[in-house]
Write a structure and sequence with these properties.
The strands form two sheets. This protein has a four-stranded mixed beta sheet with strand order 3-4-5-6. A two-stranded antiparallel sheet has the order 1-2. With about 220 residues, the protein is an alpha+beta fold. It is rod-shaped, with a radius of gyration of 31 Å. Helix content is about 35%, strand content about 20%. The N and C termini lie far apart (about 105 Å). The protein is built from four helices and six strands; from the N terminus they run H-E-E-H-E-E-H-H-E-E. It has helices spanning about 5-40, 80-95, 150-155, 160-175, and strands spanning about 50-60, 65-75, 110-120, 140-145, 180-185, 205.
């Protein structure tokens, strides 16, 4: 037979356990409600969008091997390298779109990086990266770094490859007049040609004619 005091103690512990369980359950519900309330009341920060500015794209046409000037309102970052990537991304998106006058797959993601460097003169030391503020008043060299997927999937042919190169050079100069020369890399490395024809080992001048395709040598 169980002693009376053990029975009383058991009942007290059982009641205490039930009460504590109820309190813990209530506290858990309150904590969950506060968490949800905090999430709902937390201010959400709107994504920063660059202001729309007029940009000039030099769009290639395979019909007559020409470049057409096209003015668009685009969200352009304040820094020169960001602006360069933005306009080139828009240009390549046009080429990747259905019905493009110069069909080239890849789009904006085909440009991995764009670097701006002061043009090295005969008497100047080795060039250093141009400041992001764009305070460099001298001529600049743009280094456009393509992805390997873009180069590997670019249509092969001297005309189509040359038009791609010249449209990029002309678009850069139209939006960043200080860019007077352009070089091209693929995955950060020098590549002999874009897709078998257009020379990527040389330096291109941004003001050269699409018909002559002349430029300075490396």
């Amino acid at each position: 037979m169980i002693p009376r005091y053990q029975t009383v103690l058991f009942v007290i512990l059982l009641v205490a356990s039930i009460v504590m369980g109820g309190i813990l359950w209530h506290l858990r519900d309150r904590a969950h409600e506060r968490l949800l309330a905090g999430q709902d009341s937390a201010p959400t920060r709107a994504p920063e969008v660059a202001p729309l500015e007029q940009a000039t794209l030099m769009v290639a046409s395979d019909e007559d091997d020409s470049l057409e000037t096209r003015d668009l309102a685009l969200p352009l970052p304040p820094g020169p390298t960001g602006r360069a990537r933005a306009v080139l991304g828009e240009l390549l998106d046009l080429y990747a779109a259905p019905g493009a006058t110069h069909p080239v797959p890849g789009g904006a993601q085909s440009v991995a990086d764009v670097f701006l460097l002061p043009v090295k003169s005969v008497s100047s030391p080795e060039p250093k990266a141009a400041p992001e503020s764009g305070s460099n008043s001298g001529p600049e060299l743009a280094v456009v770094n393509f992805t390997s997927a873009f180069a590997n999937n670019h249509p092969s042919g001297i005309e189509t490859e040359t038009l791609t190169i010249l449209s990029i050079c002309s678009t850069l100069h139209a939006n960043l007049p200080q860019v007077t020369e352009v070089r091209f890399l693929v995955d950060g490395q020098q590549r002999a040609t874009l897709a078998g024809h257009a020379d990527l080992t040389r330096t291109y001048l941004t003001q050269e004619s699409p018909l002559t395709a002349g430029g300075s040598q490396p």
